[in-house]
């Protein structure tokens, strides 16, 4: 049975999520402070973390930062009370796999949890992906260029992973949006272009080719 850690200090929300996940066949545990959430997340007993940002003591961003800093690749879905873009960007840059703004619908959270569990299970078969000096370890989410470690955020890593799995093929912005961001982002959003730019800065400008009018390709 897959096990989900819920870091949430509001008892009403924690109970709501816990009840829904139990009904969907997951085992759950609630942590009401950031410190408890981090300690439990580091035990390796859980398959996924649902992480509230506004936690007492240590906030969700700090929990995420320490978790990733320890090398954990555990999937993390952030819950944020503020619908603001700044929080979201900070969360994704900090290595979250997905986020939801409160209030949220349980079925939507469940769908995202299932999606993240599938992609982490799929990744376990092939932990190392390599292409022309670029190496990605999808289990620890570490990246190397010609043997040198490169620090990628969670979303940058996911984008690099999608590109390397389809090296040499052109992937459209829409494909990258749906596969890497995992849900319907505004198709007019330039988030893909922004992240391609981040990746070029970190991996080398000529590794990712722009195919005009079509999309991007790892060369
Ligand atoms: Ca809270």
TrEMBL record:
- GO MF: DNA binding
- In this UniProt entry, the residues modified to 4-aspartylphosphate are 52
InterPro entries given for it? CheY-like_superfamily (IPR011006), OmpR/PhoB-type_DNA-bd (IPR001867), Sig_transdc_resp-reg_receiver (IPR001789), WalR-like (IPR039420), WH-like_DNA-bd_sf (IPR036388)
Name of the protein in its database record? DNA-binding response regulator
Q: Which UniProt keywords apply?
A: DNA-binding, Phosphoprotein
The chain positions of domain Response regulatory read 3-117
Pfam families per the record? Response_reg (PF00072), Trans_reg_C (PF00486)
The ranges the UniProt entry gives for DNA binding are: 126-219
Q: Where is the OmpR/PhoB-type domain?
A: 126-219
Q: What SMART domains does its record include?
A: REC, Trans_reg_C
Q: PANTHER family, from UniProt?
A: REGULATOR OF RPOS (PTHR48111), TWO-COMPONENT RESPONSE REGULATOR (PTHR48111:SF38)
């Amino acid at each position: 049975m897959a096990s989900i850690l819920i870091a949430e200090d509001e008892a009403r929300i924690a109970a709501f999520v816990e009840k829904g996940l139990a009904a969907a066949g997951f085992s759950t545990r609630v942590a009401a402070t950031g410190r408890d959430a981090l300690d439990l997340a580091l035990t390796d007993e859980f398959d996924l973390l649902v992480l509230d940002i506004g936690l007492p003591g240590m906030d969700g961003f700090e929990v995420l930062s320490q978790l990733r800093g320890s090398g954990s690749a555990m999937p993390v879905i952030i819950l944020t009370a503020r619908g603001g873009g700044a929080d979201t960007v900070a969360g994704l840059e900090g290595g979250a796999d997905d986020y939801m703004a409160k209030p949220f619908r349980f079925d939507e959270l469940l769908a995202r949890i299932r999606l993240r569990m599938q992609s982490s299970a799929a990744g376990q078969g092939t932990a190392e992906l390599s292409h022309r000096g670029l190496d990605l370890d999808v289990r620890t989410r570490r990246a190397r260029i010609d043997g040198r470690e490169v620090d990628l955020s969670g979303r940058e890593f996911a984008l690099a992973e999608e590109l390397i799995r389809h090296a040499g093929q052109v992937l459209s912005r829409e494909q990258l949006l749906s596969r890497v961001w995992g849900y319907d982002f505004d198709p007019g959003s330039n988030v893909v272009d922004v992240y391609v730019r981040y990746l070029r800065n970190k991996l080398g400008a000529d590794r990712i080719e722009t195919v005009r009018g079509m999309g991007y390709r790892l060369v």
